[in-house]
Design goal:
The chain is of the alpha+beta class. It contains 5 helices and 10 strands, in the order E-E-E-E-H-H-H-H-E-E-H-E-E-E-E.
């Protein structure tokens, strides 16, 4: 498998199963990931230019170096925030969701790599407040809550992810 573990982290060497390498980061007990999605997004549309792909690769490499230097969940979240801001593709609606999540108690929040969605790292005790604030926000996104480290995830081939259902949809 390309990835077969419990937790969170970063791909440090991309590739097919048996080639890819994944770095797990240290977890903080009780931290959840709260996601908010506004609409489907075709990544191909955003990364069709060579210039954009070069920027994604450059910034992605720099973000990965941050995580390798300090493999913690907070650094992983900070690197995601940095990447999103530097790339500059965040829509005003996603930016508003990120701000709402942080204002409601998320420790870190950023745009999903590219797209009309965001994710936030939320400490125990603040999950309901963050999820509720996102649900009440103007864009009315689909909101989900994921517990980190509660179940094993396995990527068995490119495009195939298997994991037990540990998601709680809140809308």
């Amino acid at each position: 498998a390309a990835y077969d573990a419990v937790g969170a982290g970063a791909i440090v060497e991309p590739g097919a199963p048996g080639v890819a390498r994944f770095l797990n980061v240290d977890l903080v007990p009780g931290v959840a990931v709260v996601t908010a999605s506004l609409a489907p997004f075709r990544t191909d549309d955003a990364v069709s230019s060579r210039e954009t792909m070069a920027r994604v690769n450059e910034l992605g490499g720099e973000a990965l170096e941050m995580v390798l230097a300090d493999p913690t969940l907070d650094t992983l979240g900070a690197a995601g925030e940095w990447f999103s801001e530097k790339l500059g593709l965040m829509t005003p609606q996603v930016r508003a969701l990120v701000a709402e999540a942080k204002a409601s108690g998320a420790s870190r929040a950023s745009q999903n790599m590219i797209g009309h969605a965001m994710h936030a790292l939320v400490p125990a005790g603040k999950v309901e407040a963050v999820a509720s604030a996102l649900i009440r926000s103007g864009p009315r996104p689909a909101v989900n809550v994921f517990q980190i480290g509660g179940a094993r995830a396995e990527v068995t081939s490119v495009g195939e992810l298997r994991y037990p259902t540990t998601t709680r949809s809140v809308v």
